[in-house]
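U., I forgot to send this yesterday:
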Amino acid sequence: MKVINIIFDLGGVLIDWSPEYVYLKEFGGDRKKMQAFFDEICTFDWNENQDAGYSLVKATEDRVILFPEHEALIKMYYGRWEEMLGGAIEGSVSILKKLLENSNYRVFALTNWSAETFPIALKRFDFLHWFEGIVVSGTEKTRKPFPEIYQTILKRYNLKASESLFIDDNQRNIAAADLLGIQTIQFHNPEQLVKDLQSKEILI
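Result:
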């Protein structure tokens, strides 16, 4: 089926984001200790709960109650969140620009992102204003890989799943889109993305 709608994930595809930019310094360069903190205290699952709309203040308080000895480090997670934004992935932004210049495609974004921090990204990255529409998980109170958020973007912008291509770096999110009949590309780097787009006869 010919692709006419292209849906980008943001973090890890167009925007470099990592809590390491804050915590590696705090742990004196000790990656083992830093990873233990992420595995046990400020975990991936915990952060994803905020991506689905949970309050950053409440989430921080919850963790401090559980791990009071790590209060200062826990409060850094959202207190210094802006420092975790590493910048645009320029090769991907270039691809986005070329796709937008091609009037054959409608281009959207679907992101797992807290509604409280997304305005920071909107101010920092001009290209976020290029999309026809963006669906933000924190605003929708659900997130990838739950099917509801994919259905939201399809219904809101009147997109057919079979005519839509979703680009995400997370295999779990790709698999969920596949189940809904959305075409997919798992992102690894801009060079690979160009090749995968070309394999789908999307010329940039």
